[in-house]
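Hi Y.,

Following your request, here is the sequence exactly as I used it, all 81 residues.
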Amino acid sequence: MLGREERQSMNTQVFSVHDHPLAPEDLNFCKAAFDQICAAQGVDPHSDDAGEIAALIIELYRQGVRDSRQLAVMVGQIGQP
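Below is the corresponding structure, written out as tokens. Let me know if you'd prefer a different format.
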């Protein structure tokens, strides 16, 4: 039988913000930012570079970046010569 401390330890798992699923409104925001950034940078939305942009947008969003202009600056010029 598990002791009190062991039960508490099992019941109090710590999850990071990266473990929580994005809500539809979060995905809509990220998609709009992705479309805007790809268009501004002339990146094909189906390219490998676009995949990198999408991953970075999601990571930055999960870290709390909620301004599309700030996202664009932080993403930078991925895939640009």
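The chain has a mean pLDDT of 82.

Thanks again,
Q.
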